[in-house]
Specification:
By secondary structure, the chain is an alpha/beta fold. 36% of the residues lie in helices and 19% in strands. It is built from six helices and nine strands; from the N terminus they run E-H-E-H-E-H-E-H-E-H-E-E-E-E-H. The strands form two sheets. The protein has a seven-stranded mixed β-sheet, sandwiched between helices. Strands 6-9 form a two-stranded antiparallel sheet. Helix 1 packs parallel to helix 6 and helix 5 packs across helix 6. It is globular and about 50 Å long. The relative contact order is 0.17. The structure holds 5-O-phosphono-beta-D-ribofuranosylamine. 5-O-phosphono-beta-D-ribofuranosylamine (GRF) binds next to helix 1, strand 5 and helix 6.
Amino acid sequence: MDKYLKSFNIAAYISGSGTNLKAILDNVLSGFLSSKVKLVISNNEEAVGLGFPRELGIDTLVIKRTGITRDEFSKIQLDSLQKHDIDLIVLAGYIKKITPKVVDKYRGKIINIHPALLPKFGGKGMYGKNVHEAVILAGESQSGPTVHFVDEIYDNGEIIHQKKIDIDIGNDTAETLAKKVLQLEYLAYSEAIKILEEERG
Ligand code: GRF
C-alpha cells in the first residue's frame, strides 16, 4: 500500500524570475509532489514569475512594502494566508525579510532556499552574486543549495536538505557557479518539500 503523504497548501513568495517556483509547479503537475500551490505573493508587480501561476489559475497577491506600516504589511499577508488555508510558506527568491508576525504565526512552516552550503556563506548581504563570489574567493571545493526553515535571523533556521556540486577550481567563476547551483536548486527545493510531506504524513 502507498505510504500516506501529507499534502501542503503552499504559498510561494517571489520577487523576480520565479524559476524555482516554476520547477515546483512542474513537480506538482507531474505528481512528484502531493502538495498544491494555492497562493503566490510578491512585493513586485513586475515579477516575471507571476506569469506561471496566473496561467494555471493560481491566486496571486502583490503587496508593495512602501506606503504601509509593517503591521499593515503583515496583516494583509496573514489574512490571505488564512483565507487560502496555507500550511507551508515557500520563499523562492523573495527579497524582503519576512515580518516577525508572519514568522511567529507560521513558525516551522516557512522554508527558504539559499544558493550555498549553509551555515557557511549566509547572513545579511549574502544573496545573489555576492554568495558565489565569496565561495570562489574562499577557495571552496564544493558548493550547492541549502533548503532550511526560516526564523527571525537571516539563513539561520534548521537545515532540511542540501545538494552538493564540485567546483572546478581555477575555472569556475561566480557566474558559472551561479548557473550550476541554480540548476541544482530546482531539484533540491522539491526534494525538500517531499521530505516534509513524508515526515509529516
Ligand atoms: C535563487 O538563487 C535562490 O537561491 C535565491 O533566490 C534565487 C531565486 O531565483 N534565494 P528564481 O527567482 O527562483 O529564479
